[in-house]
Design brief:
By secondary structure, the protein is an alpha/beta fold. It is about 35% helix and about 25% strand. It is built from 13 helices and 16 strands. Helix 8 packs across helix 10.
């Protein structure tokens, strides 16, 4: 079923969509007429010059496709900064490494907040796979930070030296390509895409041995037609990042669930989410290359991968409880005197960060650490590690 009521494409978008379609159809043909959903998602998001994160359209903020927590209000970064200061004090280091920094808003706000707290990072590194986003980040951070911009660096690859301090992955894991599967006539099908009459369509095949084994290890509902996803790349991502933690904490902020809740019967359509011009829907086969495609994170899988690579789970909570633990409910009092309209906007932003129907419950925060004493302030209100 196609999504309706999406805004019309501009001429430039229509031309880009046509280029993406031709390249994707050719890629499918080269692969024997079918691509797994994971390969399709990788192409749609990251194909050079074509994928969503590789092309030049505005993605973040009110004028883009979606708004992330750091872009709602600088109060978000002020709270995260308080947690970072505590970690700095316990590790003796003052380094920050951020993966996939989006618009650069979090990096700029964190640098300002940490400087105000007397803990300006000695070095703030950003690992960004998108050349387009890297340039946007440079422009935003350069304008926002002034003389502090010299402390921000964009390495071309993962740093060789581990970090003593804090690593941040804010809405990164949800963009890792996932494989989708379906329970059909007692077997596990692997969902993918094909071309039918010039249109990109969904097609299913019996799952290969790897995916079949992964799905059978899950607490998956075996009801006919049950659809969900799994992220085979997640353990490899954790494996690549774990050696970078010398002494410190990797903070992961993303929407997701513990595995036992992720695969409940009522979630029979999976968790796939697409964003296009502030519209949220679940059809990845429209606006290919022009819309974001994400899936919720299985935080149990994150915890398992962390343990396998020597990292401890030292905190897991909802975003609301994490931010309250870091003082968000009191942070409005720290704002300079502002007029009532600005204060109302700040209150509305805080409500979006905290309320269950907004970001408060869907988004989780997980702390993976090495050589850091517990507890951490952000998990003092509510710690959900027992649910993993």
């Amino acid at each position: 079923m196609r999504v309706r009521n999406l805004p019309p494409l501009s001429p430039d978008e229509a031309a880009h969509a046509a280029r993406v379609h031709r390249a994707l159809a050719a890629r499918i043909a080269e692969n024997g007429g079918w691509l797994s959903f994971g390969e399709f998602m990788k192409f749609a998001l990251y194909a050079p010059g074509l994928g969503y994160y590789s092309a030049g359209a505005q993605k973040f903020g009110a004028d883009g496709d979606f708004v992330t927590a750091p872009e709602l209000t600088p109060l978000y970064a002020r709270c995260v900064a308080r947690q970072i200061v505590e970690i700095f004090e316990r590790t003796g280091g003052r380094e920050v490494l951020e993966f996939g920094a989006g618009s650069g808003a979090l990096a700029a706000d964190l640098m300002r907040a940490l400087t105000e707290l007397g803990c300006a990072p000695e070095r703030y590194q950003i690992v960004e796979v998108s050349a387009d986003l890297r340039e946007r980040q440079r422009a935003h951070i350069g304008k926002a930070l002034g003389s502090l911009v010299g402390r921000v660096h964009w390495p071309d690859a993962l740093p060789a030296a581990p970090v003593r301090g804090v690593l941040i992955a804010n809405e990164v894991l949800d963009a890792l390509p996932v494989e989708r599967f379906r329970i059909h006539q007692g077997r596990i099908d692997m969902l993918g895409v094909a071309v039918d009459g010039g249109v990109i369509v969904e097609r299913a095949r019996p799952a290969d041995a790897r995916l079949d084994g992964m799905v059978r290890a899950l607490p998956v509902m075996r009801e006919e037609g049950y659809v969900s996803e799994i992220c085979p790349l997640l353990p490899a991502w954790i494996a690549s990042v774990a050696p970078l933690v010398a002494a410190g904490v990797l903070l992961i902020m993303d929407y997701g669930l513990p595995r036992a809740q992720y695969y409940l019967p009522e979630r029979r359509d999976g968790s796939l989410v697409c964003h296009y011009r502030q519209r949220v829907h679940a059809d990845p086969l429209v606006r290919i290359g022009l819309q974001d495609i994400t899936a919720w994170v299985d935080f149990t899988a994150v915890a398992e991968a962390a343990a396998a690579h020597g990292l401890d789970v030292i905190g897991f909570s909802t975003q609301a409880h994490f931010l309250i633990g870091c003082g968000l409910d009191k942070a409005l009092d720290t704002l300079p005197a502002i007029d009532s309209a600005e204060r109302r906007a700040a209150v509305q932003a805080v409500n979006r960060l905290l309320l269950p129907g907004e970001m408060g419950e869907a988004f989780k925060v997980m702390a993976l650490g090495r050589g850091v004493a517990e507890p951490l302030t952000g998990f003092s209100v509510r710690d959900l590690r027992h649910t993993l």
